[in-house]
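haha ok so turns out i had the wrong file open the whole time. this is the CORRECT one, sorry everyone. sequence first:
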Amino acid sequence: MEIDSVKFWGNVRQLSNAIGETPYEQLADFCLKALTLPVSNAVVERVFSIMNAVKTRARNKMQLEILQCIIRIRVHLKEVLKSCCIDFQPSHDMLMSFTSQMYESTRNPKDLGTPRQTSNSTAEGEDLLEMITLFDNDNESHDCL
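then structure:
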């Protein structure tokens, strides 16, 4: 009989005695947090590997926003669409949206000389975690990237 660890510790967390105290709440919280730890750092290493392939010496002034977008596209192609950038075929709608309007700046012309502010460090950390979760499957090759 197989027991789901998350359900087990979730049930243990809710156990209470006659006066309504939950004596195992802290233990269960600790165990649930321990279950979220990664078994290896291969996923994180893969994200950094992709980042290093994208942000080369020639592209060292790339803003964080652009870097995140390129990494997301590569991950989506490989992990979700199961294809490579060489095999990608844009849809008709994509081709129709390639107009001169896509080059119009949304920034204030006064701000063009100043660097764009990126999101705060908490949001950047959340973005990194989101990218890492896209790499959950460690068994697939990533030759395309």
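Residues 112-119, 136-143 have pLDDT under 50 and may be disordered.
again sry for the mixup
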